[in-house]
Input
Amino acid sequence: GLGITAEPLFRSNVPANRLQIFFDGKPDADVRTRLKQNGFRWTPNSGAWQSYRHGYTLDWAKREFNAEAIQ
Output
């Protein structure tokens, strides 16, 4: 399990070249560690976990969260 109550929301912010993941609440420590290991950082101003928008980041997020809809 992901340690969260709802599926995360993904936003591919193309103009800013960022991939953002929004969770409903704070993900558990294991999820946070995996996010950090894969280049994501918490950004309080956007309320999202954010990384640069790379092919490997998109692929990891799709696998990790079963999110095929990310572009």
Q: What stands out?
A: Strands lie at 9-13, 18-22, 41-43, 48-52. The chain has a mean pLDDT of 86. DSSP finds two helices and four strands in the chain. The first strand starts at residue 9 and ends at 13.
